[in-house]
Design goal:
- By secondary structure, the protein is of the alpha/beta class.
- It has helices at 13-23, 43-50, 65-78, 95-100, 121-128, 163-186; strands spanning 3-8, 30-36, 54-56, 83-86, 105-109, 132-139, 149-156, 190-193, 196-199.
- The chain has two domains: 1-102, Rossmann fold (3-Layer(aba) Sandwich), CATH 3.40.50; 108-202, Rossmann fold (3-Layer(aba) Sandwich).
- It contains six helices and nine strands.
- The strands form two sheets. The protein has a seven-stranded mixed β-sheet, sandwiched between helices. A two-stranded antiparallel ribbon has the order 8-9.
- Helix 2 (43-50) links the parallel strand 2 and strand 3 (54-56).
- Helix 1 (13-23) packs parallel to helix 2 and helix 1 (13-23) crosses helix 6.
- The structure holds glycinamide ribonucleotide.
- Glycinamide ribonucleotide is lined by residues 8, 10-14, 87-88, 108-110, 119, 121, 145, 174.
- Glycinamide ribonucleotide binds at residues 8, 10-14, 87-88, 108-110, 119, 121, 145, 174.
């Protein structure tokens, strides 16, 4: 079974959804490690409850970003991690890190990229008056919310819909889509052709 690491900075509902998919036997990977950069993050409690090994590595503990990332890479290597799953990790990885795990880092974004990049995507789509938004799972490259798209699913915004209702709908889709994407990748069914992602056996 492939070893994966989840990177998270906050609530960790995607982390929990992935851990539960594994527990239920729907996703056959080993969740080897949670990497967290925020000592106050609720995801740390979730990891404890779910019995997942967690490491807290704070940017403030290192003079240079490279040293911070090298410490993370050390933990990934020690745990033989083959796929990095970013789930609300609110930090850009440097080109140095991306190169170390080339095409082996994925991210989930709560909008249909390339629309509504950034850290407030759900609110931005709502405030913009979009009729449709959604969820994107993509490979991570050097640019923000930019790498090749693996899966997308749309979420409609009803005209009377509230921001809270949209957030709930988006998170529900995220919790389904991310385990699916991890499954496809770890089964070797995801191929890259430039920016195009081909999924085989569907
Ligand atoms: C998720 O909605 C994820 O898509 C978003 O952070 C949230 C984390 O929630 N990521 C981004 O906005 C990245 N640009 P969670 O901690 O409950 O999984």
């Amino acid at each position: 079974m492939k070893n994966i690491a989840v990177f998270a900075s906050g609530r960790g509902t995607n982390f929990k959804a992935i851990a539960q998919a594994i527990k239920r036997g729907k996703l056959k990977v080993n969740l080897a490690l949670l990497v967290c950069d925020n000592p106050k993050a609720a995801v740390l409690d979730k990891a404890k409850k779910l019995g997942v090994k967690a490491c807290l590595i704070q940017r403030e503990g290192f003079a240079q970003k490279k040293d911070f990332e090298d410490e993370i890479i050390k933990h990934l290597k020690n745990n033989k991690v083959e796929l990095v799953v970013m789930a609300g990790f609110m930090r850009m990885l440097s080109p140095h890190f991306v190169a170390a795990y080339k095409n082996r880092i994925i991210n989930i974004h709560p909008a249909l990229l390339p629309s509504f990049k950034g850290s407030r995507a759900i609110k931005d789509a709502f405030d913009y008056g979009a009729k449709v938004s959604g969820v994107t799972v993509h490979f991570v490259d050097e640019a923000m919310d930019h790498g090749p798209i693996i899966l997308q699913e749309e979420v409609a915004l009803g005209e009377s819909s509230t921001l809270k209702a949209l957030e709930e709908k988006i998170h529900k889709v995220e919790h389904k889509l991310y385990p699916q994407a991890i499954k496809l990748i770890t089964q070797g069914r995801v191929k890259l052709r430039g920016r195009r992602v081909i999924i085989t056996g569907r």
